[in-house]
Specification:
The complex is a heterodimer of chains A (151) and B (78). By secondary structure, chain A is an all-alpha fold. Helices cover 75% and strands 0% of the residues of chain A. Chain A has helices at 5-29, 37-64, 78-108, 121-149. Chain A starts with a helix and ends with a helix. Chain B has helices spanning 11-17, 23-30, 34-41, 49-59, 63-66; strands at 7-9, 67-69. Classes of the chains: A mainly alpha (151), B mainly alpha (78).
């Protein structure tokens, strides 16, 4: 499988976001006790640090093993640009659906559900973050689909 | 919905006819990545007009000898 630097970068970003945020949301939504806003803020700082570190390490590995393709690191040719545009369109749609669902969630009232799902600021923030993460996964997944299948 | 590419090309044959030019060399001359050249040769990507003209110019051929348009079969022959 012959991958360009840009495509390898997408795979690396997809891996890091799924692994790190997957663990984060498992901790948050799997917790028996509601997580406070301060805990969320603390966790998010850690998440950002871990993601940035993983991305740096993976991209260094990609550059070192890329056999000269690292020179393409900062550039996107027309195919890369088109792939990105189409992928962002898919991600935007997912993000828009997330916003609509969140409006319903905040205004609709979920008291009849598990008390952990009452729209507290911390829960609302985490659900919004989840929507953004899903949109970003859609972006990366779409790019990989277009790179592999063509268009 | 993505439409299947109706463009085919003779780039692979032309590369071999021009001193067995590699995909990397062609990519550098055109200004795209090697993987983009691969995608074009396999019909997975239809290049822009500018890139298509650049490729044809590199091989010294008219555009129609490098890229071939194959319209879908229909009842209308016009």
């Amino acid at each position: 499988m012959d991958l360009s630097f840009q495509e390898k970068s997408v795979w690396a970003s997809l891996f890091s976001i799924i692994s790190v945020f997957g663990y984060h949301f498992y901790q948050v939504f799997g917790s028996a006790e509601p997580v406070t806003g301060a805990e969320i803020a603390f966790r998010l700082i850690g998440v950002i640090v871990v993601i940035v570190t993983i991305e740096i390490v993976l991209h260094i590995l990609i550059a070192v093993t890329g056999l000269g393709e690292a020179k393409d690191a900062g550039t996107m040719d027309e195919r890369d640009t088109l792939v990105a545009i189409r992928a962002y369109r898919n991600a935007y749609f997912v993000l828009a659906v997330t916003v609509v669902l969140m409006i319903g969630y905040v205004l609709g009232g979920v008291q009849f559900l598990d008390p952990r799902w009452i729209p507290t600021p911390a829960m609302t923030a985490n659900l919004l973050l989840l929507g953004m993460v899903v949109a970003e996964i859609t972006n990366y997944g779409s790019r990989i689909f277009f790179y592999r299948r063509g268009f | 919905m993505n439409q299947p590419a109706m463009l085919s090309n003779s780039i692979r044959r032309l590369r071999f006819d021009h001193g067995e030019m590699t995909q990397q060399t062609l990519a550098e001359k055109v200004g795209v990545t090697r993987q983009t050249v691969i995608a074009i040769e396999k019909g997975k990507y239809s290049p822009s007009l500018e890139v298509a003209f650049r490729i044809a110019h590199i091989f010294g051929k008219p555009l129609e000898e490098v890229f071939h348009y194959q319209p879908e079969a229909s009842g209308d022959s016009s």
